[in-house]
Amino acid sequence: MSLAPSEPFTASPQLNVVHFAATTVIYSNERTKSIRFRLEYVSRDFKFEDAHIVVSDPAKRLEATLTKKPAGSTSSPTEPGDGLIVGICERQVTDRLYEQAASNGQLSIKQEAVASVHADLQSFILRTLRLLRWRTKSPGRPYPIRAVLRFMWSLDAIEWKYVADYMSLRIKQLENPPVLTDAATEFVRNEIVGELDEPLGHELLREAWTNQETNLRSAIVLAVAAAEVGFKQFASKVFPDCAWILENLQSPPLSKMLDLFPWDKMKLAINEQPVTVPDSIKDELKKAVTLRNEIVHGRSGALTSDITESVLFSVRDLLYFLDALIDRKVWAFEFMSADARKHFTNK
Question: Is 25 helix (H, G, I), strand (E, B) or coil?
């Protein structure tokens, strides 16, 4: 099968360089109020051997270069299939921001202008990888980035400095490792002789956590499904007479189900507070459902690990909250986040 008219797709066998744009970004030394930025990622599933692939958008002053990642150091070990993709751009900035960079030698990701540049570079890099894999029928996991290396800036494209506060955003939700208590061990020993198993909602959420590393969209879709399944199973167990409705009829949105559920009929209180879903959970889940709907209809914008992680944490809070209400599982309540537990503090 042939498509006409067509343009030849060529690569130099001597240098093995593929150019996807006829023009490269040229930075003018005459522009004294501009700052260059550089974002480096380790990409997954690089299949192009020694190719040096350059892509640019001159109008937006964006350029990305993709190569096979060289053997790394102890701080950045190289795994099989690793690629190195570097995005560079130049941005006109306000006098105030430029003078701050020149005098203090520091820019922060917390500054709106810098965060905006990061978003542009990240989007450009991801589109480059997706288009390349699609056009070359290259296999690979859905999310093409394996690791973040660095985000830097420069006034002269020679001396590069790290953007402040960047990596701290990647580790803001650190958690303590799980603790194996005597009570947990005894719980497993007692329940193993019965029929109890990990609820399906928790199983789906585990898949979502796994997908967060490779596919942010899939992680959000699975996480919302975990919340919906978890709530329906909880409602069916609490009010068995309504189980057939939940199982056979189309359900309203999750946020509405949480609002309409007759929590007062359970006649439960936590720390003398009426049982209702904490606002922190409901607010986040409402955003999550909107995101899920946009994703399945092909309208999702740029997702980030922070957004996805926030959804996963809120779903986990909901599932453990529901666990706590069944058979008065105090240990499940303790697994909720501190923000969610604040809803039940004595006032």
Answer: coil
Output the six-digit token pair for 207: 């898949």
DSSP-derived letter for residue 51 is -
Bond preceding residue 144 cis, omega within 30 of 0:
no
Average pLDDT, the chain: 82
The tokens describing 73, both together, are 């150091």
The structural domains of the chain, with segments of one domain joined by +, span: 17-170, 182-344
Confidence bin at 151 (pLDDT 50/70/90): very high
Choice among 99-103, 124-128, 167-171, 173-177 with the minimum mean pLDDT: 167-171
Phi-psi region of 126 (alpha: psi -120 to 50; beta: other; left: phi over 0): alpha
Q: Quick one: pLDDT band at residue 255, thresholds 50, 70, 90?
A: confident
Phi, psi dihedral angles at 317 (to 5 degrees): -60, -45
Instruction: Give 56's strand partners.
Output: 63
> Which region, left, alpha or beta, applies to residue 24 given φ > 0 means left and ψ of -120 to 50 means alpha?
beta
- Mean pLDDT to the nearest integer, 271-282: 86
User: Taking Cα atoms as reference points, which of 281, 274, 280 lies closest to residue 254?
Assistant: 281
Q: Which helix (H) or strand (E) holds 35?
A: strand 34-43
The H or E element that residue 37 is part of is strand 34-43
Q: What is the mean pLDDT of residues 248-271?
A: 82
Q: CA 63, CA 24: separation in Å to the nearest integer?
A: 7
Which has the closest alpha carbon to 38: 147, 126, 122? Answer: 122
β-sheet bridge partners, residue 63: 56, 88
Give the pLDDT of residue 20.
45
End-to-end Cα separation, the chain, in angstroms = 73
CA distance 331 to 184: 9
Question: Confidence class of residue 168 from pLDDT cuts 50, 70 and 90?
Answer: very low
Q: How many CA atoms lie within 13 A of 261 on its CB side?
A: 25
- What is the residue whose two structure tokens read 């503090």? 345
0.85 cut: is pTM over it?
no
User: Residue 306 belongs to what H/E stretch?
Assistant: helix 305-325
Rounded distance, CA 307 to CA 217, Å? 11
